[in-house]
Amino acid sequence: MTEQQAKPSPGPSHARRRWGMVQMAIAAQTMKIQVPNVREDMMMPPITAPELMPVLSRGKHRNPRRGACFMEMASFLAGERWSDHPACTHPLLADLARLVNDSVTDRLRPRLIPLIPSVIGLTSDDVHVDAAIALRSALAALPIAAAPRQNVLATAVIRCEHVLAELYGRDRDSLSAQSRQVLDQVPEAGAWARSCSSGLRASRRTFRAQIAPHILNIAVEGIALACAPDVEQRLVDLLAATIADCQALILTDAAPKHWVAAEFA
Questions:
Q1: What is the rounded CA–CA span in Å between residue 132 and residue 194?
Q2: Is a pLDDT exceeding 50 seen at residue 116?
Q3: Are the beta carbons of 226 and 146 closer than 8 angstroms?
Q4: Which of 57, 134, 157, 254 could in theory staple to 67 by disulfide, Cβ–Cβ 3.0 to 4.6 A?
Q5: In 3-state terms, what secondary structure has residue 68?
Q6: Which residue from 263, 250, 158 is spatially nearest to 211, judged by alpha carbons?
Q7: DSSP of 123-160
Q8: What confidence tens digit (pLDDT) does each residue in 28-57 have?
Q9: Angle CA(209)–CA(232)–CA(207) in degrees, nearest 5?
């Protein structure tokens, strides 16, 4: 379906107000209780939670009555036209939210609900943000992914570091402390990635449009299919940490341009 031009988002403050109005509906939906009637006409039947709030579920939905994915819920809270690609959120962060939403089970998906208002207003055309999102995802997946994926993920880490090195004006082959630490956990994949990445270069436009989204897909799938405990919670934690990264880079006026990927969970 062709996406129509989304109208500008009213912003985080509007989302918080609307979020407050629907929190009771979410609780009612989970607890299967009835929300008190808020209509002036007392003869009207009471409004139930499903009528007020769509159910968070996998995939894209034509309208709220059919359910909502993470980003469709964000478009609703932001006051935008119903869409899983709202203008209020950075496209790559929205990609990650959709991937995580679709990778967790119905049992775990409600844990994503408190994160939804946080993505509203997080948007930027700064490639620092794309590199930070892609790097965090690759670092989260690399230690636990199956061996065949580790070479690709290790290469992804180095490609992201190359982008950041260029942006920060540091040596191209330099790595953040966290990247070195994670690559040291998979020495064979790290060595393979270094040998294959030495001559690889891509424009910032290509990185944003093609490379970074591909890294997210590989990383999320690698975590979801990993033989590791609590992989679904790892995905929820990845999304939460990435949102925090974006808040630091986008919303903080004093965000340092020498930001490096440190303290990854």
A1: 20
A2: yes
A3: yes
A4: 57
A5: strand
A6: 158
A7: ----HHHHHHHHHHHHHHHTTTS-HHHHHHHHHHHHHH
A8: 444 443 434 444 444 444 433 344 567 888
A9: 10
Contacts of 172 (CB under 8 A, 6+ apart): 162, 165, 166
Report whether 39 contacts 52 (CB < 8 A).
no
**Residue 19: which pLDDT band, with cuts at 50, 70 and 90?**
low
Whether pTM > 0.85 for this model: the answer is no
Banded model confidence at residue 204, pLDDT cuts 50, 70, 90? very high
More confident residue, 1 or 234: 234
| Six-digit token string for 221 | 């799938």
Q: Report the pLDDT value the prediction gives residue 251, as an integer from 0 to 100.
A: 85
Identify the pLDDT of residue 169. Answer: 87
Question: Does residue 116 belong to any structural domain of this protein?
Answer: no
Q: Would you give the DSSP letter of residue 85?
A: S
d(CA 30, CA 224): 25
Measured CA to CA, the distance from residue 229 to residue 38 in angstroms comes to 44
* Boundaries of domain holding 38: 12-88
**77 and 166 assigned to the same domain:** no
CA dihedral 171, 176, 179, 184 (to 10 degrees): 80
Of residues 74 and 26, more confidence is placed in 74
End-to-end CA distance of the chain: 37
User: Within this chain, do residues 132 and 72 fall inside the same structural domain, yes or no?
Assistant: no
The tally of domains found in the chain comes to 2
The residue type at 119: V
| 71 SS3 class | helix
